[in-house]
């Protein structure tokens, strides 16, 4: 193994010539922004993120290129530092970035597990069936799905929210393509705006909260700007939604599975636990979320131990003509590890790759250069508005992580602004957020990049208006 590493080091070493800082102490950080290794790392990241952007066309999971890029970037850093006799600086920096990912990972894993549990218990399906069966008009459904997306996203993630509301729109609007397009745009804008005023509503707000930059309650100062961000475009689009009502859609009544309300209550209790851990005990919120996972695991054990008796299972078997009793028992049971396995693992590994890759570029000094230009030359307000625009082109997660890594000196007003813009800026393009990408797949043939782009000026008006209202209300 040592021989292999030595050969690898010997092969790569010529790529990284010695720089002027050869005498740097072990605790110093080297500026690699004009170093061959720095250029190579930057190229690797650009190539990897280009593959991420082309995920749909290449059918390549977005986690794969960034995982590879993160590994290569830190290999480059380690080799350069070892050449200069600084053996442990890269290790310390990498551990710091890895700890940030670990906290985010366990927080999101618990949240995803609860969402999967609520889906399996039929909570969201019951909501969908209720909406479809009420006989609302097209314009009423347009408003209801958008408003629900706004208020559901702060608790559930914007991806789950968009898929649930998108199912409703597609179910009732098959005869009105224009209704589907406008409703999908409204759902994307609503889900992204709703997530901006909650620490749990978006990955970017979660990162800011876990970093301790903004207190839990201070996020709600963004509620009014978030409302404006959604309501203004929705009000304009409302008048272009077709009139009339869709044909009645009949659904068999579906009762939510046993324990569904308790799962929802435990999820809310878990959020309270995470907030208390952070605000009162000064412990990472992820630790509180892991304790909340214990709530669900204990309740899952109760559900498993009190499942239907064998006699009832046989009765169900006879009724449905099934011969495999075990398969029926599995359907009626509740396995918590199935819910954990159903987490968005590609997304979680994507977060790892992004955090480690961007962290590596920051350690090389590139984020310092960007910070000096954006927050030094442009000013905090212009820079934070630009962050929102960038988040529509590049995913808001690496953009926000870069801002947090740069850690510019800003007031709370400006930190709230960048939290708002990074959260709602993704609505400018359909590919700017997970909600938009998900709906493009779900409503294929109706909701497209071009269809969303036609309404980008209206969405941009809402974006700028929300910024103005933020300064008006919170300034």
Would you give an account of this structure?
The chain is mainly alpha-helical and about 475 residues long. Helix content is about 70%, strand content about 0%. The chain has 24 helices and no strands. The radius of gyration is 25 Å and the shape is globular.
What is this entry, summarized?
The chain is mainly alpha-helical.
Span of the ends, CA to CA: 59 Å
Beta-strand level of the residues, as a percent range?
A: under 5%
Radius of gyration: 25 Å
Supply the number of helical segments: 24
Q: What is the overall pLDDT average?
A: 82
Annotation, overall tally of beta strands: 0
The major sheet is characterized as:
none
- List unreliable stretches of 5+ residues: 1-27, 323-331
Reading the helices and strands in chain order gives HHHHHHHHHHHHHHHHHHHHHHHH
Class computed from helices, strands and strand pairing: mainly alpha
Helix content: over 70%
Q: What would the principal axes of the Cα set say about the shape?
A: globular
């Amino acid at each position: 193994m040592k021989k292999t590493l030595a050969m690898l080091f010997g092969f790569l070493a010529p790529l990284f010539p010695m720089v002027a800082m050869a005498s740097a102490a072990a605790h110093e950080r080297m500026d690699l922004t004009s170093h061959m290794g720095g250029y190579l790392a930057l190229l690797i990241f650009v190539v990897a993120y280009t593959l991420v952007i082309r995920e749909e066309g290449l059918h390549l999971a977005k986690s794969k290129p960034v995982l590879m890029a993160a590994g290569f970037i830190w290999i480059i850093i380690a080799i350069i530092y070892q050449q200069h006799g600084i053996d442990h600086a890269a290790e310390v920096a990498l551990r710091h970035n890895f700890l940030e990912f670990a906290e985010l990972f366990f927080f999101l894993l618990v949240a995803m597990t609860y969402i999967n549990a609520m889906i399996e218990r039929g909570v969201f399906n019951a909501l969908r069936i209720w909406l479809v069966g009420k006989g609302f008009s097209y314009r009423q459904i347009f408003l209801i799905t958008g408003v629900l997306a706004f208020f559901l996203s702060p608790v559930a993630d914007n991806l789950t929210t968009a898929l649930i509301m998108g199912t409703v729109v597609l179910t009732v609007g098959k005869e009105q393509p224009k209704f589907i397009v406008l409703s999908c745009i409204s759902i994307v804008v609503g889900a992204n705006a709703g997530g901006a005023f909650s620490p749990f509503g978006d990955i970017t707000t979660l990162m800011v909260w876990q970093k301790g930059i903004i207190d839990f309650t201070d996020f709600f100062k963004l509620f009014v700007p978030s409302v404006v961000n959604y309501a203004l475009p929705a009000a304009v689009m409302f008048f272009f939604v077709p009139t009339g009502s869709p044909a009645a859609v009949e659904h068999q009544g579906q009762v939510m599975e046993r324990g569904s309300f308790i799962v929802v209550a435990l999820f809310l209790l878990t959020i309270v636990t995470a907030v208390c851990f952070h605000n009162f005990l000064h412990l990472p919120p992820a630790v509180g979320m892991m304790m909340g996972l214990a709530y669900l695991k204990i309740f899952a054990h109760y559900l498993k131990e009190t499942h239907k008796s064998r006699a009832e299972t046989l009765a169900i078997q006879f009724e449905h003509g099934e011969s495999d009793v075990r398969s029926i028992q599995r359907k009626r049971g509740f396995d918590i590890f199935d819910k954990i396995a159903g987490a968005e693992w590609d997304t979680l590994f994507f977060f790892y790759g992004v955090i480690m890759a961007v962290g590596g570029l920051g350690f090389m000094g590139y984020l310092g250069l960007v910070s000096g230009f954006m927050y030094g030359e442009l000013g905090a307000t212009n820079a934070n508005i630009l962050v929102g625009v960038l988040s529509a082109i590049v995913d808001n997660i690496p953009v926000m992580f870069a801002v947090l890594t740069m850690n510019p000196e800003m007031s709370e007003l400006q930190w709230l602004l960048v939290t708002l813009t990074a959260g709602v800026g993704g609505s400018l393009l359909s590919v700017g957020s997970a909600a938009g990408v998900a709906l493009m797949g779900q409503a294929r043939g109706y909701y497209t990049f071009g269809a969303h782009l036609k309404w980008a000026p209206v969405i941009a008006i809402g974006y700028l208006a929300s910024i103005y209202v933020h300064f008006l209300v919170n300034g």
